[in-house]
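Task 17 of the worksheet. Students: predict the tertiary structure of the chain below and write it out as C-alpha coordinates. Keep your answer in the requested format; marks are given for formatting as well as content.
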Amino acid sequence: MILAAAAAVAPDSTQQAVGYPSLFLLVVLGALVPVVPTGALVSSAAVVAFHQSDTSPFALLIVFGVASLAAFAGDMGLYWLGQRGMRSKNGSRWLEAIRDRAPEDRLSQAQDKLQDHGVLVLVLSRLVPAGRLPVMLACLLAKLPLRRFARGNLPACLAWAVTYQLIGILGGSLFNEPWQGVALAVGLTVFISLAPTVWRRLRRVRSTAS
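Model answer:
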Protein backbone atom coordinates (compact mmCIF):
# COMPACT_ATOMS: atom_id res chain seq x y z
CA MET A 1 0.00 0.00 0.00
CA ILE A 2 2.84 2.38 0.77
CA LEU A 3 4.34 1.60 -2.64
CA ALA A 4 1.02 2.35 -4.27
CA ALA A 5 0.94 5.75 -2.63
CA ALA A 6 4.47 6.45 -3.75
CA ALA A 7 3.54 5.50 -7.29
CA ALA A 8 0.84 8.16 -7.17
CA VAL A 9 3.41 10.86 -7.75
CA ALA A 10 5.68 9.04 -10.15
CA PRO A 11 6.77 11.23 -13.07
CA ASP A 12 5.61 8.92 -15.87
CA SER A 13 2.14 9.89 -17.12
CA THR A 14 0.96 6.26 -17.23
CA GLN A 15 2.01 5.71 -13.62
CA GLN A 16 0.24 8.93 -12.64
CA ALA A 17 -2.94 7.76 -14.34
CA VAL A 18 -2.85 4.61 -12.20
CA GLY A 19 -1.22 6.03 -9.09
CA TYR A 20 -3.49 8.93 -8.21
CA PRO A 21 -6.68 6.82 -8.38
CA SER A 22 -4.89 4.15 -6.34
CA LEU A 23 -4.04 6.67 -3.64
CA PHE A 24 -7.64 7.91 -3.68
CA LEU A 25 -9.11 4.42 -3.37
CA LEU A 26 -6.69 3.39 -0.60
CA VAL A 27 -7.47 6.47 1.49
CA VAL A 28 -11.21 5.95 0.99
CA LEU A 29 -10.77 2.32 2.04
CA GLY A 30 -8.77 3.45 5.08
CA ALA A 31 -11.59 5.77 6.12
CA LEU A 32 -14.12 2.94 5.82
CA VAL A 33 -11.89 0.23 7.30
CA PRO A 34 -9.58 1.86 9.89
CA VAL A 35 -6.82 -0.73 9.60
CA VAL A 36 -5.33 0.82 6.47
CA PRO A 37 -2.52 3.27 7.44
CA THR A 38 -3.85 6.27 5.53
CA GLY A 39 -1.55 8.75 7.26
CA ALA A 40 1.48 6.75 6.20
CA LEU A 41 0.14 6.55 2.65
CA VAL A 42 -0.22 10.31 2.36
CA SER A 43 3.15 11.02 3.98
CA SER A 44 4.89 8.54 1.68
CA ALA A 45 3.26 10.04 -1.40
CA ALA A 46 4.30 13.51 -0.21
CA VAL A 47 7.93 12.37 0.16
CA VAL A 48 8.10 11.26 -3.46
CA ALA A 49 6.23 14.36 -4.64
CA PHE A 50 8.72 16.55 -2.78
CA HIS A 51 11.65 14.91 -4.57
CA GLN A 52 9.92 15.40 -7.91
CA SER A 53 8.99 19.04 -7.32
CA ASP A 54 11.47 20.17 -9.98
CA THR A 55 9.93 18.05 -12.73
CA SER A 56 6.36 17.93 -11.36
CA PRO A 57 5.76 21.25 -9.57
CA PHE A 58 2.10 20.48 -8.88
CA ALA A 59 2.66 16.96 -7.50
CA LEU A 60 2.40 18.03 -3.85
CA LEU A 61 -0.76 20.00 -4.55
CA ILE A 62 -2.31 17.02 -6.34
CA VAL A 63 -1.42 14.66 -3.50
CA PHE A 64 -3.05 17.08 -1.05
CA GLY A 65 -6.19 17.34 -3.18
CA VAL A 66 -6.49 13.59 -3.71
CA ALA A 67 -5.86 12.78 -0.03
CA SER A 68 -8.28 15.34 1.40
CA LEU A 69 -11.03 14.50 -1.10
CA ALA A 70 -10.62 10.77 -0.48
CA ALA A 71 -10.69 11.20 3.30
CA PHE A 72 -13.84 13.32 3.02
CA ALA A 73 -15.54 10.82 0.72
CA GLY A 74 -14.65 7.91 2.99
CA ASP A 75 -15.85 9.67 6.13
CA MET A 76 -19.11 10.71 4.49
CA GLY A 77 -19.69 7.18 3.24
CA LEU A 78 -19.06 5.68 6.67
CA TYR A 79 -21.29 8.26 8.38
CA TRP A 80 -24.09 7.57 5.90
CA LEU A 81 -23.75 3.83 6.53
CA GLY A 82 -23.77 4.52 10.27
CA GLN A 83 -26.98 6.54 9.91
CA ARG A 84 -28.61 3.64 8.09
CA GLY A 85 -27.59 1.39 10.96
CA MET A 86 -29.06 3.80 13.50
CA ARG A 87 -32.39 3.80 11.65
CA SER A 88 -32.47 0.02 11.33
CA LYS A 89 -34.00 -2.07 14.10
CA ASN A 90 -31.20 -4.60 13.82
CA GLY A 91 -28.41 -2.06 13.36
CA SER A 92 -25.70 -2.85 10.81
CA ARG A 93 -22.21 -4.28 10.69
CA TRP A 94 -20.87 -0.82 9.84
CA LEU A 95 -22.44 0.69 12.95
CA GLU A 96 -21.12 -2.18 15.05
CA ALA A 97 -17.65 -1.66 13.59
CA ILE A 98 -17.78 1.99 14.66
CA ARG A 99 -18.99 1.04 18.14
CA ASP A 100 -16.25 -1.57 18.52
CA ARG A 101 -13.58 1.06 17.85
CA ALA A 102 -15.10 3.69 20.14
CA PRO A 103 -14.37 2.77 23.81
CA GLU A 104 -16.86 4.04 26.35
CA ASP A 105 -14.44 6.52 27.93
CA ARG A 106 -13.46 7.99 24.55
CA LEU A 107 -17.11 8.12 23.47
CA SER A 108 -18.08 9.96 26.65
CA GLN A 109 -15.32 12.52 26.10
CA ALA A 110 -16.38 12.94 22.48
CA GLN A 111 -20.01 13.51 23.46
CA ASP A 112 -19.00 16.17 25.98
CA LYS A 113 -16.80 17.94 23.43
CA LEU A 114 -19.50 17.75 20.77
CA GLN A 115 -21.98 19.32 23.13
CA ASP A 116 -19.54 22.10 24.08
CA HIS A 117 -17.98 22.86 20.70
CA GLY A 118 -20.32 21.45 18.07
CA VAL A 119 -18.95 20.18 14.77
CA LEU A 120 -15.64 21.98 15.37
CA VAL A 121 -14.62 18.94 17.40
CA LEU A 122 -14.46 17.02 14.11
CA VAL A 123 -11.32 18.93 13.12
CA LEU A 124 -9.46 17.82 16.22
CA SER A 125 -10.81 14.28 15.97
CA ARG A 126 -9.13 13.80 12.60
CA LEU A 127 -5.77 14.91 14.00
CA VAL A 128 -5.87 12.90 17.24
CA PRO A 129 -4.96 9.21 16.77
CA ALA A 130 -8.02 6.99 17.26
CA GLY A 131 -10.14 10.09 17.80
CA ARG A 132 -12.16 10.03 14.58
CA LEU A 133 -14.53 7.13 15.26
CA PRO A 134 -15.55 8.07 18.84
CA VAL A 135 -16.50 11.55 17.59
CA MET A 136 -18.30 10.07 14.59
CA LEU A 137 -20.27 7.77 16.88
CA ALA A 138 -21.08 10.72 19.14
CA CYS A 139 -22.43 12.57 16.09
CA LEU A 140 -24.52 9.53 15.12
CA LEU A 141 -25.96 9.19 18.62
CA ALA A 142 -26.75 12.91 18.61
CA LYS A 143 -28.55 12.38 15.26
CA LEU A 144 -26.45 15.03 13.58
CA PRO A 145 -27.71 15.51 9.99
CA LEU A 146 -25.41 14.41 7.19
CA ARG A 147 -25.14 17.95 5.84
CA ARG A 148 -24.08 19.38 9.20
CA PHE A 149 -21.57 16.57 9.66
CA ALA A 150 -20.14 17.40 6.23
CA ARG A 151 -19.62 21.07 7.20
CA GLY A 152 -17.43 20.04 10.12
CA ASN A 153 -15.77 17.13 8.37
CA LEU A 154 -14.51 19.05 5.33
CA PRO A 155 -12.07 21.29 7.26
CA ALA A 156 -11.13 18.25 9.36
CA CYS A 157 -10.05 16.33 6.25
CA LEU A 158 -8.16 19.33 4.87
CA ALA A 159 -6.28 19.74 8.16
CA TRP A 160 -5.53 16.01 8.26
CA ALA A 161 -4.13 16.00 4.72
CA VAL A 162 -1.95 19.05 5.44
CA THR A 163 -0.58 17.51 8.64
CA TYR A 164 0.49 14.22 7.10
CA GLN A 165 1.76 15.90 3.97
CA LEU A 166 3.99 18.10 6.13
CA ILE A 167 5.37 14.94 7.76
CA GLY A 168 6.20 13.67 4.29
CA ILE A 169 7.81 16.94 3.26
CA LEU A 170 9.92 16.83 6.41
CA GLY A 171 11.06 13.31 5.60
CA GLY A 172 11.78 14.24 2.00
CA SER A 173 13.81 17.30 2.95
CA LEU A 174 16.12 15.38 5.29
CA PHE A 175 17.29 12.73 2.83
CA ASN A 176 18.49 12.65 -0.75
CA GLU A 177 16.88 9.30 -1.52
CA PRO A 178 13.05 9.13 -1.53
CA TRP A 179 12.98 5.68 0.12
CA GLN A 180 14.80 7.08 3.16
CA GLY A 181 12.23 9.83 3.50
CA VAL A 182 9.42 7.31 3.08
CA ALA A 183 10.91 5.16 5.86
CA LEU A 184 11.10 8.16 8.18
CA ALA A 185 7.59 9.32 7.33
CA VAL A 186 6.14 5.86 7.93
CA GLY A 187 8.03 5.59 11.21
CA LEU A 188 6.72 8.96 12.38
CA THR A 189 3.12 8.18 11.47
CA VAL A 190 3.26 4.79 13.18
CA PHE A 191 4.73 6.43 16.29
CA ILE A 192 2.02 9.10 16.28
CA SER A 193 -0.72 6.50 15.94
CA LEU A 194 0.63 4.15 18.63
CA ALA A 195 1.84 6.67 21.21
CA PRO A 196 -1.59 7.48 22.75
CA THR A 197 -2.46 3.77 23.10
CA VAL A 198 0.86 2.99 24.77
CA TRP A 199 0.48 5.98 27.08
CA ARG A 200 -3.03 4.92 28.15
CA ARG A 201 -1.83 1.39 28.90
CA LEU A 202 1.07 2.70 30.97
CA ARG A 203 -1.33 4.87 32.95
CA ARG A 204 -3.58 1.88 33.61
CA VAL A 205 -0.64 -0.19 34.77
CA ARG A 206 0.48 2.58 37.12
CA SER A 207 -3.00 3.10 38.53
CA THR A 208 -3.40 -0.66 39.08
CA ALA A 209 -0.02 -0.91 40.79
CA SER A 210 -0.80 1.98 43.10
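Marker's comment: Residues 2-209 form one domain. Residues 102 and 133 are 6 Å apart (CA to CA).
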